Amino acid sequence: MLDKLGWRKTDKKxxxxxxxxxxxxxxxxxxxxxxxxxxxxxxxxxxxxxxxAGHHEGMKNIRxxxxxxxxxxxxxxxxxxxxxxxxxRPRKEVEFLMRLPEEFLTSFLPxxxxxxxxxxxxxxxxxxxxxxxxxxxxxxxxxxxNTGMILNFALNYGSRREMVLSVQEIVTQVQNGTLSLxxxxxxxxxxxLMTSQLPDPDLLIRTSxxxxxxxxxxxxxxxxxxxxxxxxxxxxxxxxxLEAVESYQSRNRRYGGLKGE
Length: 261
Ligand code: FPP
What we know:
Bound molecules: farnesyl diphosphate
Shape: globular
Keywords: Magnesium, Metal-binding, Transferase
Radius of gyration: 19 Å
Oligomer: single chain
Largest sheet: 6 strands, parallel
Number of strands: 6
CATH class of the domain at 29-158 and 200-250: Alpha Beta
Pfam families: Prenyltransf
Strand content: 5-15%
Number of helices: 8
Order of helices and strands: HEHHEHEHEHHEEH
Subunit structure: Homodimer.
Strand order of the largest sheet: 3-4-2-1-5-6
InterPro entries: UPP_synth-like, UPP_synth-like_CS, UPP_synth-like_sf
Cofactor: Mg(2+)
Structural class: alpha/beta
Distance between the termini: 44 Å
CATH architecture of the domain at 29-158 and 200-250: 3-Layer(aba) Sandwich
CATH superfamily of the domain at 29-158 and 200-250: Decaprenyl diphosphate synthase-like
């Protein structure tokens, strides 16, 4: 049974954590958080485990972070799960990664329904193996009428590729006369990106110490706050997520204007 904030009775064991979550929830919460889930390989290496063990642990951690994000009232969570560049990894690793959405979505789907969470995806689904496509499509269809948080997976996603596709669509509309050159605005471009249904992320988190964007949401992150941590993704906890959101809440976003405006 869930209470009206989406909490289970068992959640209330850690009173300090609950209090912290409620405080975060009562302030200005980022409507959209994007996460680059990095460091699965290093997490595994530190434990003398194969890299794929890190990916599996990383997959399990998505549950923890989804639950926490949902509890504090985040509107959308976009997770970078597989980039257009990740196809260059060894075949076995790619095959393993492509099995994870199935495992995750099958076992987590009942809880996603209970939490009223809607699953979405950005990236080119057609190039994924059929079994991966089926798992993602099934989760998107099953959760389509949920009205709570959006859990958005970036799978076979690359921001530059997304921009190329967007330009192609826009140029086609200009060529067939449904759009005039003068009417192309920033909004036109946003509307042709794969994230057209989502607000731009307020906060970007990257785990595991790297300080780069790796072709993730380059247009959408123009005004986002960034949060980097040394923690590897499989160990990134609900407390770490709260720390990132608390830091976001203490910042003053100016969008190029002046303080206080
Ligand atoms: C980067 O770590 C991580 C990835 C390329 C894969 C991320 C995928 C998951 C966390 C699970 C996806 C699950 C679902 C349900 C879609 P890395 O391998 O580059 O780590 P390293 O830099 O330490 O080697």
